[in-house]
Amino acid sequence: MRKWIILGVLIGSAVAHEGATGVIAERMDTMDAISEANRTLVSISRGRADFDLATVQSAASVITKNAGQSLVDMFPEGSISDTSEAKADIWLDFDRFSNLAMNLESTAKVLSQITSEDEFKSSFDAMAKNCGGCHRNFREKKR
Q1: Whole-angstrom Cα distance, residue 65 to residue 61?
Q2: d(CA 133, CA 139)
Q3: How many CB atoms lie within 10 A of CB 140?
Q4: pTM of whole model > 0.85?
Q5: What does pLDDT average to over the chain?
Q6: DSSP bridge pairs for 86
Q7: Phi and psi at residue 3, to the nearest 5°
Q8: Are residues 120 and 51 in contact, defined by beta-carbon separation less than 8 angstroms?
């Protein structure tokens, strides 16, 4: 069953990225990497997967690597198209968007450095707030 879900996600990503080029395609790939890592963490947080420290640290490290300034840099002004899920609101409130991207990096880094299951929930919740805040305000879901 899991392989069918993964196959569906991959096909959905390929279709969603159809026609995307340049920085838009690059940031869509980056968001997919963040999303896949976050799916792993969500499964653990909801008890659908067992807690495994190495898995948590690895997934959080992927998010850390793809967040922060490198993420902000993938949103140069005017980089919007029909293939993009980015709302024009990003450029209307770029400071807020940038702060969320930077906070995602720092909270994911904290999560990547936890040493026990006891630290997981609060660290994960802090990171997830950044994801939700950004998606609510700056993402137009087209899939």
Answers
A1: 6
A2: 10
A3: 12
A4: no
A5: 87
A6: 139
A7: -65, -30
A8: yes
φ/ψ of residue 113, rounded to 5? -110, 10
- The sign of the torsion formed by the CA atoms of 96, 18, 108, 132 equals positive
Strands (E), 49-133: none
- Asked if 87 contacts 138 with a C-beta cutoff of 8 angstroms, the reply is yes
pLDDT in tens, 95-134: 999 999 999 999 999 999 999 999 999 999 999 998 888 9
DSSP state for residue 131 in the 8-state scheme: H
How many other C-beta atoms lie within 10 A of the C-beta of residue 36? 16
Tens-digit pLDDT profile for residues 4-21? 444 444 444 444 456 666
Q: Which residue is associated with the tokens 């929930």?
A: 121
How many residues in total does the chain contain?
Answer: 143
Query: What is the SS3 string spanning 21-45?
Result: CHHHHHHHHHHHHHHHHHHHHHHHH
User: What pLDDT does residue 54 have?
Assistant: 98
